[in-house]
Write a structure and sequence with these properties.
Layout: E1 2-4, E2 8-10, H1 14-22, H2 27-30, E3 35-42, E4 45-50, E5 56-64, E6 68-73, E7 80-90, E8 93-102, H3 106-127
Antiparallel strand pairs: 1-8, 2-8, 3-4, 4-5, 5-6, 6-7, 7-8
Organism: Maribacter caenipelagi
Protein name: Carbon monoxide dehydrogenase subunit G
């Protein structure tokens, strides 16, 4: 399953946008209002939970300075990645596309598609306002 957000324009350079996303405590600012829990576990991992949903631990998997950050689920039970692709539009303005990629059975995919789409769209929208 692959879900992508529309491109979001950020009033920061690609370097500043990358550094913002690479500093995991900043994800607290991007989370939806219905966040129930947010905790930075270390410099490469954070945990979050939305009301009525189980806790999810995300960790940095890969990064290409100023262009891409890939976060992934720390648990193998629910394998997925959340990728931020950062592109320069012009000096001081970048564009970000968030993509969620996971391998799920058809039933699970059907159940989580809408909440995941809403979640990454909220992250993307909030990123455009930071």
């Amino acid at each position: 399953m692959l879900i992508e957000t529309p491109k979001t324009q950020v009033s920061k350079s690609t370097e500043d946008t990358f550094n913002f996303l690479n500093d995991l405590p900043n994800f607290r600012q991007l989370m939806p209002e219905n966040i129930d829990k947010f905790e930075v576990l270390n410099e490469n991992r954070f945990l979050f939970a939305l009301k009525g949903m189980p806790e999810i631990v995300l960790e940095k998997k890969e990064q290409t300075p100023f262009n891409q950050i890939i976060l992934g689920a720390a648990s193998e039970k629910l394998p997925f990645t959340l990728t931020a692709d950062i592109t320069e539009i012009e000096s001081g303005i970048s564009e970000v596309v968030l993509s969620f990629k996971g391998e799920f059975n058809a039933m699970m995919a059907m159940m989580i598609k809408k909440p995941i789409t809403n979640f990454i769209n909220t992250l993307s929208t909030n990123l455009g306002t930071v």
